Sequence to fold (606 residues):
Amino acid sequence: MVNKRGLLTFASNPVIASTGVTVGPLETKKSPFSKYADKNYDDERCGLKTNEQGHAKMMEDACMIALSKLDKTPTDAEFVLMGDLVNEMTPSNFAASTIGVPYLGMFSACATSVSSLLMAALLTESGMAELVVAGSSSQHNAIERQFRYPLQYGSQKGATAQWTVSAAGVATIIPHIEGAPIITCGTIGIVTDLGLTDPLNMGAAMAPAAADTFKRHLEGHGSTVEDYDLIMTGDLGKIGFELFKTLLDRWEYDVSSTFRDAGAEYYGKHPEFLAGASGSGCSASAYFSEVYDKLLSGTYKRVLLIATGSLMSPLSYQQGDTIPCIAHAVEIQMK
Amino acid sequence: MDEKKYQQLEQQITPKPRYLKNCILAFVVGGFICFIGQFVALFYISFFDFTERTASNPTVATMIFISMLLTGFGYYKKIAQVGGAGSAVPITGFGNAMISAAIEHRSEGYVLGVGGNMFKLAGSVILYGVFSAFVVALIKTILVGLGVVSW
Amino acid sequence: MLSIFITSFIVGGLICVIGQLMMDVGKLTPAHTLCTLVVAGSILDGFGLYEPLIDFAGTGATIPITSFGNALTHGALAEAEKHGIIGVLTGMFEVTSSGISAAIIFGFVASLVFKSKGTI
Fold:
């Protein structure tokens, strides 16, 4: 008997009708994903006064771009589901206030890209929505000062440290139409905590969560690794991704080819980014740019996206708590 | 998978810090900062009315000024990524901790932002410096009073 | 004259190596490392060992953060010698004021002049 807990199947085949991706100046220069982005900024604060305002602006622009590709305005959208990592998600709140669409804040840390996508698909599936906007974002400066140190503080980062991206990724979800990537099913993650405590090694903390969700998704939905053209995790980074593959290897999955990690690839081969990228904009901007484009062009027929998030705060790790982690999976098909 | 097994696996896969390389770099960077400091001290001894002893005060202040420039223009964290403790342990690192916090929190205003957060990293150094000095001096004063040791 | 430059480099470098080992091997955060070194500096001065190190190494001993602990203790002890136990409280910042006041003043100046940047 297969355990069906946390599994979602969307029989009505809701589709991702468009996406909007905005990236910051550093990503524009260094990231291979930036060439798929819709908009980039010269200024890390998008010309505004504070990092958080720039953060909100990136999110807002991404929403507007995704809607404009459908020739829609915010008044046509019924729901917007989004989130970020800043305290109380103020950037998303401000972005939602500007676009004025009924709003639900989503928080699954860096897995928010997929959790909001799944909830959007669910709203569409239930027949209560014709157009839902879903996405997530992060901004390096705002996240760094909240979770770590002031930007100019000199502390040596080890090989496990990841760089929070400045990017936003948004998708619009509508009921089934031909010629768009279909959200077929998904799996909601179980919070996994294997007792790791190092906030500068989040990839290692998140890898078991990703592996667990992966296994539950394949077993629950009865698929195999060979069914997919791409299995992409969110922001495990180089070390977390190694651990993830090692775990799957032990469970006798073939990890040789179809696997990728957005965080590990986000900054290409630049060594100064150490283990790679992280942040809720990382998976969102990678999934809704390159992966979406390649689904549309038919390069990928069926992909499994597993976004990972570490659900800690500066308070929790300073109090000596471990890092609880989550991973949500969504399966997207192009027919 | 249980916690212990996973933590072992994590230890295997996570690369260890390169101890020797880090130590050599810390030695070179830290030594170099002190070396520069010696030039500054020499300058104060030669051109102003300072002795080798009293020159350390203006030297420290000058080093923190240099640290401010390096921090403000974004070079200090690059030095720190290479030098590790070599840039954190000298007084320039203490300056960097306060200056970077001050710059970062300006967006919250000069009173609650700059004033309230300037000491958030360096404050603990001041606290433990002062408290340990208090305890050490108190013990020594009592011991001298009891005639156990002399000044 | 020249030898003080060499001893300064070596002693200053070695203190930093101790700090690096505390961070890499002892897995301490930079803040924990600095606090430990400061406490070590003030204890060393309690035994009268830090001043000879300054004579030997010059800025190699006065620039590392250990000298902050030393200076605090030194000020407290000097005042205690004159005024007894109350001097422990009043003398503390006598010697070390320059480091803290410089950091506060330049910190404030920097907050007026510079803007934080997320460049790598």
